[in-house]
Amino acid sequence: MNKKAFTLIELLIVVALIGILSSIGVITFQGQIKASKQKKAEINLNSINLALQEYKSNNGDYGSSSSCSSSSNRAIDTNLFDGVQNLSGDDTFQYCINVSGSNFTIMAKNPKTNCQITLNQNLAVNRNSSC
Q1: Helix, strand, or coil here: 69?
Q2: What value does the mean pLDDT of the chain take?
Q3: What are the C-alpha distances in Å from 98 to residues 12, 13, 34, 40, 107?
Q4: How far is CA 74 from CA 9, 83, 86, 108, 116, in A?
Q5: Which of 10, 16, 73, 121 has the most CB atoms lying inside 10 A of its own CB?
């Protein structure tokens, strides 16, 4: 019997290697998804900052503070982006603005992971330890 075929052990080793490599790929991919969502939140914070600066130049102040809630994204879209849905489609982060005189802090908060990314009037970005 001189047939050329794979043995059962060779096939099991190949299947095990494919399983190990795919699990490593899935873990890496999930980390990249998390990082991209956080980067999108930072970009949204910068967009809110630009809209706040325009609001201040038109109205003389930064307006009032808003709390982070399920409706805060829609409120910011309405008040700062003239109703254009910039934040309403983002179900990962809730955005809010804290105004104190001529200072402000914009926060993106993920209610599931408690990740908080903040941007202040000096454009300093901070993250808490949950990010």
Answers
A1: coil
A2: 91
A3: 59, 57, 25, 20, 8
A4: 58, 8, 9, 14, 19
A5: 73
* Residue 44: Cβ within 10 Å count: 21
Residue type, 123: L
Of 47, 43, 62, 65, the C-alpha closest to 117 is 43
58 DSSP assignment: H
What's the whole-number mean pLDDT along residues 69-92?
87
C-alpha 91/C-alpha 32 separation (Å) is: 18
Instruction: Tell whether pTM > 0.70.
Output: yes
Tokens of 104: 């402000």
Q: Read off the tokens for 12.
A: 């099991």
* Biggest CA-to-CA distance, the chain: 91
| Torsions phi, psi for 9 (to 5 deg) | -65, -40
